[in-house]
Request: fold
Amino acid sequence: MNYPAPKISSEREVIENAKKIGEMIYNTKTGLPGLDLIIFSEYSLQGFNPKKWKELSLPIDSEAVDIIKEASKANGVWAVFTLTGEINEDPRKNPYDTALVISNDGKIVLKYRKIMPWVPIEPWYPGNSTFVTEGPKGIKNRSYDLR
Reply:
């Protein structure tokens, strides 16, 4: 989906942008009833604020993600988008740049943490695995651990 990276400065703006993404899912499905998968570009949810990136990081279990999960379920559409960043389990480490695949029933079926952030611009902590998930029209499941 050609969705611009927003200029975000607060958590409230992240929530408002998640609602816009949800509306875009609804409007796109309305205009294209056969749509079963919608992919948003990297940075479409939180943008990239070079001064507030850590402050704007979210856990996967967040209101913003729930809004997109609900829009996917309500419209029967798979959605792909990123959390830039996803809060790291280790608070001493930077957040991840995480791609999520949401199924048409609103469930997270894949979580991929970007392995090679663009250094020195992207501050994300690298992931260590790649995945493919079962999805619409026969996509099959396979994972790779790069540790």
Observations:
- The chain has a mean pLDDT of 90.
- The longest strand covers residues 78-86.
- The radius of gyration is 15 Å.
